[in-house]
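Posting this for the archive.
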Amino acid sequence: MESVRKNSNLKELHLDKEAIATLSLAKEGILKPIDKLMNKEESEKVYKTRKYKGQFLPFPFILAPSGRRNKEVLKNAQKGDLLKIIVLGKFKGYIKVDSIFKIDIKRRIKAIFGTNDETHPGVADTMRRLGEYAISGEYEIEFDDIKKVKIDIKQAINAIEAKKVTALMVAAKPLHRAHERLIRITLENTDLLVIFLLKPYKRDTLSYDIRYKTLKHFVDNFLPTSRVIIVPFENTYIFAGYNNAVLDSLAAKNFGCTDIVLGQNHSGIGIFYDHDRINSILDHVKNSGINVEIVSEFVYCNQCKTLVSTKTCPHGKHHHISYHSPSILEILKVGLLPPAVLVRKEISAILLSELFKHRFKNLDKIYDAIMPSGGLLEEHDEKDFYIKLLELYQTTSLT
């Protein structure tokens, strides 16, 4: 690797972090049986059969980077050439060219998302990052994040000699009460719970670090920590389509999990029309070598007075409070505290103190003026303030 790094005569392919993470998933065996970049013949076979080495695969595993510079490098590359992989100006590995071939961008988009409609979330972004030419060949890359996740999960399994290891893929955007209920129910029926916290590559209101902070707070303070591990899941564009339940299950299995829990509203478990018959992605998930459990939606019922499953609650939807993450996030984005029935007060406090840092000019003065105290002068941060403020909201004698 070092000799390639120092060779200034080699041509360069300029990739983004998302492409490197995707290559690393295959390199580390997380996408098995995928173990390499496919050539044209292999790609065509996957398109026609939707299988690779006997296992369902919704689309070929290829690398076709966009950009004028990359296009010229690929057009002129010859079999046996070494191409440096550069990410944000830094050397990250190399590819030894086996073949270069043209791809049908719209066909690939359709295979990933089920549509070419650019109003569909993800389609336009993926179209921009795809180029005309794909490259196949052996590659080496420097990306240790996924290797670390494998090690962390294995150590957690060995520490308690876990036999049943259950995966749960969550965005926690934001972490709400329904997430908490799902996590608890899953933990009741497994030895070890692996929470894969999705780590997308698009900027968002709630960064991965903020979401990790809230999830870790919940796990550390309200769950048996020896039986739960939180790990980042490199949620690259290949997981963005309607086949993501299949790919999530495949990745979870290869990370060492025996089971995976999917919500009934998971975007990848609906039905689709293919080869003149109605199919379900679940048909493929159930044959992926990992046990799959589908969990129904949780809501708060104002008749039951608690969090319930939509499958067990006898009351109509007009009695239900839905845990709709985008709506809860909108409340947080304008600086409001969500009701505690939606989000645990400590979680709301963490989120608002991160989203609106240094929001109050005289925080201690406001705190001392309106909050009850033990008579001692203490310093308080914004997180403390939001927790106490929500407790005031919950005072009922004057409401």
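DSSP finds 15 helices and 19 strands in the chain. The domain at 145-298 is CATH 3.40.50.620 (Rossmann fold).
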